[in-house]
Design goal:
The protein is α/β, with parallel strands linked by helices. It contains twelve helices and twelve strands. The model has no long low-confidence stretch (mean pLDDT 91).
């Protein structure tokens, strides 16, 4: 987690805003207006930037170098809307969000799934879990080949798992667990803080095996160096095979707390976990590095509802709050979380992706701003 520097506290915060495609252009302005209305923040300046598949279709470039340069040289953090990456190969196109994560050193994708119990939910107590997804490796390095053989075409994809990246994401997972443990202690809760390693090393013994042992190595080294009384004292560690984890997550999600996973598993698990709270439109994330934070709602570009004022802005608003939290602005972030939870708990202003919802994007924005004030 970053901390506001003295320089940042004395000047306006500069936030790069990249709506990208589809409903990103509808929900990111809502997040901006909520940030502008949140008490306790320094003055904020919002820098509009371009990226996305639609931009690629117009210009042949999905992520202009200018966007990268401005983020690196002028911005303290950023918000990304959504991207319409095609499911088939398009010559010359690659996902701008994947490249942004690499260019900015955003090696961790942190996706909490939490919130009040909504009408129609299958569980009677709130879900509270967070997936820490390694953001730079696995199959997402996009090293693929297609070969013609006498038996037909053969496609291959290289999967990369390194000790360095796995250790780094393991350390991030335990630091997130420490922060959750501290919050629980402050609140007087006795809930166990736990990190679960998600893998498939019973089949992929080399790649997933290295991920598993690297993350375990972070925990074991801390205990060995400090006689069990180190930084991660009181934090439990377990592991779960990815297939059985999906089953357990939908049957008994409350057994999970902090989940750390390679890129592909983390992507699938965190999207699936959105069903536990009712909609992808509620789930936030941040892409985190050691020097930069970028908020990003988990949902896609939703072309079927684009421009209809139906998109759920909650994920974008929560992502903005999560960005603030990981920048060190904890109290303003809490105000946004509480405002959103109040609107959801009330249950009268919900978009159509939620049970019984008939409200518009604008309705939800107005309700959040009222709760915030």
């Amino acid at each position: 987690m970053l901390r506001p520097s003295p320089v940042m506290m004395q000047r306006a915060l500069r936030i790069g805003m990249i709506p990208a495609d589809g409903i990103g252009r509808e929900v990111l302005p809502v997040a901006q207006r909520v940030l502008e209305a949140t008490p306790g923040l320094p003055k904020m300046e919002f820098v509009p930037l371009q990226a996305g598949f639609e931009l690629f279709q117009k210009t042949g470039e999905a992520l202009p170098q200018q966007t990268i340069d401005v983020l690196k040289s002028e911005c303290d953090a950023a918000m990304f809307g959504s991207v319409s990456s095609p499911s088939h190969k398009v010559e010359g196109y690659s996902s701008p969000i994947v490249r942004l994560r690499k260019e900015l050193g955003l090696y961790a994708n942190i996706r909490p799934v939490s919130g009040p119990v909504l009408p129609g939910a299958q569980f009677d107590k709130p879900i509270d879990m967070v997936t820490i997804r390694e953001n730079t490796e696995c199959l997402y390095i996009k090293s693929e080949t297609l070969e013609d053989t006498p038996q037909g075409q053969v496609a291959r994809a290289i999967r990369q798992i390194s000790e360095q990246a796995s250790t780094r994401i393991g350390r991030k997972a335990f630091e997130v667990a420490r922060a959750r443990q501290a919050m629980r202690e402050t609140a007087g809760s006795s809930a166990q803080t736990k990190v679960t390693i998600c893998h498939k090393s019973n089949v992929l013994s080399v790649t997933d095996g290295l991920f598993r042992t690297s993350v375990r190595g972070v925990y074991d080294a801390d205990r060995a160096e400090n006689g069990g009384e180190g930084r991660y004292k009181g934090i439990a560690l377990d592991e779960q095979l990815v297939d059985s984890m999906v089953y357990r997550m939908f049957r008994e999600p409350h057994v999970f707390d902090v989940i750390v996973a390679p890129n592909l598993y983390g992507d699938i698990i965190s999207d699936g976990a959105a069903a536990l709270v009712g909609s992808l439109g509620l789930v936030a994330s941040v892409n985190a590095g050691d020097k930069f934070i970028m908020g990003e709602p988990v949902h896609g570009s939703a072309p079927d509802i684009c421009g209809q004022n139906k998109a759920n802005p909650v994920a974008a608003v929560r992502s903005a709050a999560l960005m603030l939290e990981y920048m060190g602005y904890t109290e303003p972030a809490l105000k946004i979380y509480r405002a959103v939870d109040a609107v959801l708990s009330e249950g009268r202003t919900l978009t159509p992706d939620l049970p019984g919802g008939t409200s518009t994007t604008s309705d939800v924005e107005a309700a959040i701003l009222r709760a915030l004030s």
